[in-house]
Amino acid sequence: MQRNEANTDIAVDVSGRQLARNTALNLVGRIVPLLVAVVAMPYVIRHLGPDRFGLLALAWMVVGYFSLFDLGIGPATTKFVAELFGKGEIEKLPELVWTALASQTCFGLLAGFLLALATPLLVDRLLKIPAGLHSQAHLMFLILAAALPVDFATGSMQGVLAASQRFDLLNALTIPASSLNYLLPVGALALGFGLPAIVLFLVLARAASLAVLVVLCVRLYPALRARVRFDPRLVRSLLSFGGWVAVSGVLAPILINFEKFAVATLLSVGALTYYIPCYTMISKVAILPAALATSLFPAFSYCGAKEGGSHLLQKLSVNPIKYILLLMAPATIMFFLFGNDILRIWLGADFSRRGATIFKILALVFFIHAFAYVPLASVNGLGHPEWKAKLDLVEGPLFMALCWILTLRMGLEGAALAKLAITAVDVVCLFVLSKKLVGFSFRDLTPSPLIKSFAVACIPVLGGLPLVIAAIPLSVEISVFAVSLAFYALATWKVALDDEDRLIVSGSLHRLMARKGI
After folding, report:
1. Which of 25, 105, 145, 305 could be joined to 115 by an S-S link, Cβ 3.0–4.6 Å?
2. Is 7's pLDDT higher than 80?
3. Angle at CA 337, nearest 5°, toward 496 and 463?
4. What's the predicted TM-score (pTM) here?
């Protein structure tokens, strides 16, 4: 990001190099806390015990539902700040940022007040909490209620850094903050603290993270320190955009989880045993397109507001599709070819026999879903979150009806096929909506680079055909597929990537080796 001498014009870097760097940073920001959780979770579960750990997990789930009261102001802040940068109107930044922060804090106070009021009902009546843990549960929920204003305000300040593509600073803060969610309970338990104290430590850590965020934003934009202003008129704009984002947030659990409810209702709760592990493993591949979309959303907002930014919008709409195709194809084909073996080694022969087909269908689901992130980022970034919300309102009942029918007729495979069908419909509709905004033709989605990328993506498929046709040992299958991936990597470098792409990759490798002293 660059400033001119007057400090009133900001040029945000949305080049392919910067977006690739931000995607890598966002990916690390998701993976590192996940690895910390994998290491820390067994210790926490063992020392808390199943009842207390279940209570802690349940409490965070309840808080997650109350977070809907933020009404999408965090994403709205990201969008409007990015638009100010695109228009060169940095002088309006203080009013927007402080208004968003104050609004989020107020909504957080409201949500916290409601959670505090609901605590007796939740603990004593609705939730099946062991009698011996009622007092701890009351105290824990009250502490979490007090923390909601901090959580809400954090969303707005993170939006400021995201809007300026400063994902280096954002991840430098969020990685340790997210990791502390798992490390603090370990330390607290080792020192003999109980469950309420653990929650209090987590809340204090989040408050410290918010304070650091505010300091970073103020240092990055000194105008924020010079003028602290609240503009009530901006609240309406923030709510107009963020409200639709919140609607999508309310509807999302239906599209994400309804097939699990259908399986438990129409088949049995035990049948979920063969569905949820497959879903959980396959869903991890979504971390990559999600990392890309995090930087695409503010980039679309910036380019949409920038004078003469239409050519940048075209590039933002087409190039990421190539990258998603090239990165997702090998993983999807691996899951499809080795699904039986993965499940057999991981969960046993019986699970492999009953879950292999579901595993392969879900691999296709998440492959198709990966392409939804680009048009969704454009639709939201260019100011039409209501389109996605209304699309969800239509798709929700269709998905529920289709899922109910297919699950009744086909069992677990029917539930997975319903998920595949609604995902395909959603992706196609999002591309149609994005086309209206960006103005690209669907012919723009089949230029030479994308055709080459698709051809390259077929290499692992061709390499995997012998594995499907012939009954050969697993070690030979892996060897053949590894050779196929080697050819795929070479063809990607030589054919699918252009000069700019190769420069980005080679530059990233050089910087990485320089840091390692190689």
Report:
1. 145
2. no
3. 45
4. 0.80
Coil, helix or strand at residue 15: coil
Find the range with the poorest average confidence among 14-23, 109-118, 260-269. Answer: 14-23
Q: Can you give the pLDDT at residue 439?
A: 59
The residues spanned by each domain of the chain are 2-230, 251-442, 446-512
**Amino acid letter, residue 339:** G
Q: Which residues, 6+ apart, have CB-to-CB distance to 285 below 8 Å?
A: 328, 331, 332, 366, 367, 370
Q: Which residue has the tokens 């010079």?
A: 226
Neighbours of 134 (CB within 10 A): 13
Q: Estimate to the nearest angstrom the gap between the alpha carbon of 126 and the chain centroid.
A: 30
DSSP 168-230: HHHHHHHHHHHHHHHHHHHHHHHTT--HHHHHHHHHHHHHHHHHHHHHHHHHH-THHHH----
pLDDT of residue 91: 84
Tell me how far the alpha carbon of residue 100 is from its chain's centroid: 22
Per residue in 97-156, pLDDT (tens digit) is: 999 999 999 998 998 899 899 888 888 887 777 778 888 888 988 998 898 899 889 888
> Are 182 and 36 within 8 A, CB to CB?
yes
The 10 Å Cβ neighbour count of residue 100 is 28
CA 193 to mean position of chain CA atoms: 33
Which is nearest to 156 in space by CA: 84, 99, 225, 226? 99
Q: Which residues neighbour 126 within 8 Å (Cβ) at sequence distance 6 or greater?
A: none
- Nearest one of 434, 459, 457 to 444, comparing CA atoms: 434
| C-alpha triplet 451, 455, 458: angle, nearest 5° | 145
Distance CA 88, CA 259 (A): 47
